[in-house]
Amino acid sequence: MFIGREKELNALDQLYRSDKFEFVVIYGRRRVGKTALINHFIDGKKSIYFMGVESNEKQNLENMSKSIMEYSNGIQADTCFASYQAALEYTFQLAEKERVILAIDEYPYVARGSKSLASTLQLLIDKHKDSSKLMLILCGSSMSYMEDHVLAYKAPLYGRRTAQMKIMPFDFEESCKYLKNLSDEDKAILYGVAGGTPQYLLQMSDKLSVEDNIKNTFLNPMSFLYEEPVNLLKQEVREPAIYTAIITAIATGHSRMSEISTKVGEDTNVCSGYIKNLINLGIIKKETPYGEKDSKKSIYTIEDNMFCFWYRFVMDNTSVIVRGATDLVYRRIEAQLSDYMGRVFEDICRQYLWKQLLTGNSPIEFVSLGRWWGNDPKLKCQTEIDIMGEQDSNAALFAECKWRNEYVDLDVLETLIGRSKLFHYTKVHYYLFSKSGFTKRCRDKAEEMGNVTLVSYEDIVKSIS
Questions:
Q1: What is the pTM of this model?
Q2: Number of domains composing the chain
Q3: pLDDT exceeds 90 at position 376
Q4: CATH number of the domain that 434 lies in?
Q5: 283 and 317 in one domain?
Q6: 292 and 370: one domain?
Q7: Which of 84, 275, 294, 442 has the fewest Cβ atoms within 10 angstroms?
Q8: How much is the pLDDT for 280?
Q9: Are 285 and 262 found together in one domain?
Q10: Is residue 80 part of a domain?
Q11: Closest CA to 366 of 383, 375, 353
């Protein structure tokens, strides 16, 4: 089942129709759907697809040769080119008179086994780019390798690419296409559980309840997702145990560098290196209060929903899960699920605000969105704002998000208004987001003020359906 990626497919189709040499770099974390995208794009087109394996140069060259000869002769052949240069030279020649796609998937595996491959590609691109109709696609899951050895200024291939695509997980709207037969509330919960990574969404069934989905995947020792975070880290990093300790620390509320360092038992300088890698992998993110650059206030949170759910609810319960006590573990999860969904709902609300901006329906034309936290000098306490976004020094929006089974009352709006006065904007717009709706007092006050927008979760779902 292939869903979404319309923007990427349209961009690839446009490049394909140029009928001249094109070189596209596609990269992104594992399971995000890069291979599915490429296979869907090349389906029905004249193409050579080759996936690198974690082996030596001889093995990968043999595999590439088979892919090229199968395309050229229409049959499987044992012919092996003497070198990558010979194989690629032959492919460029195939594309002299007609459009041919050469897609090399998991390029880092191939390039690591052949130190001269990048330079060979550079040489052949420079030689044939003006006369060839080849569409070359290099794809890789090792984002650090793709960024450092393909896209970076000092890389041999720098300046040769005609396009690059960093494939990201789906947002909430796209994820709902995988979950279309579920209730609106269950769609949000399973997005909070699985995130927007296609391979994880495919593990969820829109014919089962949230409870059964969680039991069948995260609480089932034989399922794909049961050990996925650990397995993925083993593929991506050299010391998965330390990375696991850092993610666990963050998942359990240790969000500042000093707190993470103490919890893990490593120096902050050591931890910062590991954290940087986790950020590059899209697993965690660094946040500072909106509009501020003071790194002393920075906190770290888990960006990927599946990782967040797994480290919060599965890791500490593994000994119970393997003994088959899934009902017991699910009851523990269920008791905390509404609280867990608060962070997920904030993310869904931010996505809604971005859509409003992009469709011309936002009263504030903000340039970015983020959380803010800091000291309230009047109340003499720490406070925070779920979402704020600034248009300029005069105009901003402020938002509060509530995922709970009761109407949002006037006090929530009054609190948000009070917190917004910590700033000095002349034009302010307020958003209240609610899972369940709003009391009459809140609706009346919003109407009276005129600069308040009340958005229920039902409204969000309607906007994407």
A1: 0.92
A2: 3
A3: no
A4: 3.40.1350.10
A5: yes
A6: no
A7: 294
A8: 87
A9: yes
A10: yes
A11: 353
1 in a structural domain: no
* 3-class secondary structure, 234: helix
In whole angstroms, what is the distance from residue 277 CA to residue 27 CA? Answer: 16
pLDDT band (50, 70, 90) for residue 77: low
Q: What pLDDT is recorded for position 185?
A: 97
pLDDT higher than threshold 80 for residue 268: yes
Q: Which amino acid is at 182?
A: L
Q: Are residues 289 and 213 in the same domain?
A: yes
In Å, what is the CA distance from 396 to each residue of 168, 312, 422, 434? 28, 34, 12, 21
The CATH number of residue 91's host domain is: 3.40.50.300
Residue 75 has pLDDT above 60, yes or no: no
Are 159 and 92 part of one and the same domain? Answer: yes
d(CA 259, CA 361): 41
- In terms of domains, do 312 and 425 share one? no
Maximum C-alpha span of the chain: 79
Range name among 13-27, 76-90, 243-257, 389-403 with the lowest pLDDT average: 76-90
Distance, CA of 283 to CA of 142 (rounded, Å):
14
> Is 336:403 a contact under the CB 8 Å cutoff?
no
pLDDT tens readout for residues 223-247: 999 999 999 998 888 888 999 999 9
Q: Is 12 in contact with 22 (CB distance < 8 Å)?
A: no
> Which of 309, 341, 373 is where one domain is finished?
341
Q: Is it the case that residue 295 has pLDDT exceeding 90?
A: no
Coil, helix or strand for 189?
A: helix
Question: What DSSP string describes 308-371?
Answer: HHIIIIIGGGHHHHTTT-HHHHHHHHHHHHHHHHHHHHHHHHHHHHHHHHHTT--SS--S--EE
Same-domain status, 243 and 298: yes
Residue 79: pLDDT over 90: no
**What is the 3-class SS of 97-134, one letter each residue?**
CCCEEEEEECHHHHHHHCCCHHHHHHHHHHHHCCCCCE
The residue segments making up the domain with residue 238 are 173-341
Over 90: is that where the pLDDT of 143 sits?
no
Query: Which residues is 402 bridged to in the sheet?
Result: 434
The last residue of a domain, from among 166, 186, 210: 166
